[in-house]
Each structure stands twice: as structure tokens, then as C-alpha cells.
Amino acid sequence: MDLSLSTRTVGDRTIVEVGGEIDVYTAPKLREQLVELVNDGSYHLVVDMEGVDFLDSTGLGVLVGGLKRVRAHEGSLRLVCNQERILKIFRITGLTKVFPIHTSVDEAVAATD
Amino acid sequence: MPTVELLFSAQPEHVRTARLVAAAVARRAGVDEAALDEVRLAVGEACSRAVGLHRSNGVEAPVRVMLNEDEKKFSIEVADEVPGNASGGSPDAGADEAADDEGEMGLAVISGLVDDVEVIEGAAGGTIRMSWPTTTA
């Protein structure tokens, strides 16, 4: 399965809905999408990963890169994820301390901390 | 001779194929269903690292994946043909730092995931060897 990406805005937040597999092959597409959003002035991103079947370290690298970019504009990058197998990857790499991870898009949109 | 051996050209799009094959053979070998996600991820990381090494060093040889099934364990070896990467001293240092960083993150994920893992550096290239216990029904 390939990567699917769609975006929508809720208030000042941009939701990026990701589906499929994020790996060494597909991660560049996600990177392009995040870079494009930031270049267009969207600095508060919510990446919805509920439809993601697979995530590897290349994908993590892209998310960290996205976080770096939005932070340069005092923005935010929040993740939505409830899948244990995906959460595990954030946990073993210590990235749960880096990304705010929410259980729903609504919760991520409402978060302000 | 390995149970299944896979050679693929060092292109990112083939890493998924390697994951699927490894998971299928692991399941057949009797690796616990709950560990198959780990197998998939670990093989993907090892193959992504090998693909990155081949590409950044201009190596045209394929990446080699060996899947071995024996009585008590299922083991995977992913071999690249780029010598001397364990110490981080790549032949053309600084050529592709981003790729190196990703490779290191990949290794971090593998060591976090897999209990039995070994990284071997040889004159001909590196090998990541990993294994999982199997349960025979």
C-alpha cells in the first residue's frame, strides 16, 4: 500500500491526514507536503496517523524535520495516534517526549500547551 | 543455504517487498504473531540502511537478505557491500550526512526492538544479524 495524504484546516490548525505506509520510499512525499505547508504559512500542524499501517525511522526523521520547521516559526506539530504498534516506535526512540501525541484530532486541535 | 534468500537492487521501493517476504517467512517459521510487526520493522530498517549505504557510496551491487529457519529460532541477515561503517568512518566522510543519520536512527530502532541483534563489519561490507524465537506447534 502506498502513502495517502490529505489536508484540511480547522481554525488556525492544518490537519494532515496520513494513510498507508511511511517508509524509506514514501517518506519523501510526506516531507514535501510538510515543507510545502510551512512554506505556505501553515505553522500549526496536526498529523493524523490513524490510517498509518507502517512507520519506520525514515518517517520519524521526516516528522522531526517538520517539527523543526514549524518551531522556527513558533508553530507546533501534534500527532494523533492510538495504534500501539506505531506508538511503540515513538517510545523506543524517546520521541514521545518530543511530540505531543493525542488520541483524537479534536483533542489535538483544542490543545494549546 | 538459507531457507529464503532475497537479492534486490538498492532502491527504496524494494524495501517494502523485503518486509513482506520476511514477515511471510517468519510467520511460516513459527515466529509469534505478536512479534511479526517487529520483524517487519527491523527488516525494513536494516534494508533501508543498506540501501542508503549503497546509494551514498555508489555501490551498484544488490542488497542481500537471508532468512533462516531452524528448530528454535528464525534469523535474518541483511548484508550490504559497503565496508567500514560500524565506526562511522565512511570512506567519503560527509558525502551524505543525512543518509548516515537516518541509518543510525534505523540501528537505534533495531536495537530497541530486537533482543538478539548483532552488527558485523567485514572487509566486504556489513551485516546485521537478528533472530527471534520460534514456537513449533
UniProtKB/TrEMBL annotation, chain A:
It holds the Pfam family STAS. CDD domains: STAS_anti-anti-sigma_factors. Keywords: Phosphoprotein. Residues 3-112 form the STAS domain. It comes from the Bacteria. InterPro entries: Anti-sigma_ant, STAS_dom, STAS_dom_sf. One of its GO terms (molecular function) is anti-sigma factor antagonist activity. Positive regulator of sigma-B activity. Non-phosphorylated RsbV binds to RsbW, preventing its association with sigma-B. When phosphorylated, releases RsbW, which is then free to complex with and inactivate sigma-B. Belongs to the anti-sigma-factor antagonist family. PANTHER family: ANTI-SIGMA FACTOR ANTAGONIST TM_1081-RELATED, ANTI-SIGMA FACTOR ANTAGONIST TM_1081-RELATED-RELATED. This is Anti-sigma factor antagonist. The gene is rsbV.
Automatic annotation (TrEMBL), chain B:
It holds the Pfam family HATPase_c_2. Residues 8-132 form the Histidine kinase/HSP90-like ATPase domain. The keyword Transferase applies. Keywords: Kinase, Serine/threonine-protein kinase, Transferase. Residues 80-102 are annotated as: Disordered. The keyword Transcription does not apply. It comes from the Bacteria. Gene3D superfamilies: Histidine kinase-like ATPase, C-terminal domain (3.30.565.10). One of its GO terms (molecular function) is protein serine/threonine kinase activity. InterPro entries: Anti-sigma-factor_SerPK (IPR050267), HATPase_C_sf (IPR036890), HATPase_dom (IPR003594). This is Anti-sigma factor. The lineage of its organism: Bacteria, Bacillati, Actinomycetota, Actinomycetes, Kitasatosporales.
